User: Fold HTH myb-type domain-containing protein from Acer yangbiense.
Amino acid sequence: MWSWEENEAFENALVELDHDSPDLFEQIAVRVPGKTPSQVQTHYNDLVEDIQTIESDLVPLPNYGNDNTNATNTVNAEKKRKHPRKKGILWTPEEHELFLIGLEKYGKGDWKSISRYCVVTRTPAQVASHAQKYFLRVQNSGNNGQNSDVTITAAAALAAPSPLQYMTEPYTSIDDQFFPTYNP
Assistant:
């Protein structure tokens, strides 16, 4: 019987040593105290046989308590449980104000810089999504509520005026600076 430590030493030796070496089993036996080259060779042959059996699909996959017998569906079901879709967390007025400052400073499209230096609580993808929604809201506010299904084009987004001009009172203080409060 091989202990966990002996198996670990055996496997490490297999990774490190040249398998084509004529004295492979002697070299491994030196690294696994208490095992002879003959025992190492028997253990190696058992390992090779186990690997061949597994790779030839002769060993059934274990059932880990899931009633679903299809292995693909089991894997997909486990992925769904491990990574459920999170619902978006609403942006705070402070985050939006920081977004507007970043938009003025870094410009439209530099979501990575806005995320890294202004809205540090959001990823670049979240900043980009927020920007898209913001510009649609700005464009729709110019339509007086008409055509709420407007799809903004790149040209329209680039032609959009400064986002700060749409902000109104009241003002909020952040680090002794005053910024307009976000009014959706």
User: Anything to note?
Assistant: DSSP finds eight helices and two strands in the chain. The chain has two domains: 4-82, 93-181. The radius of gyration is 31 Å.
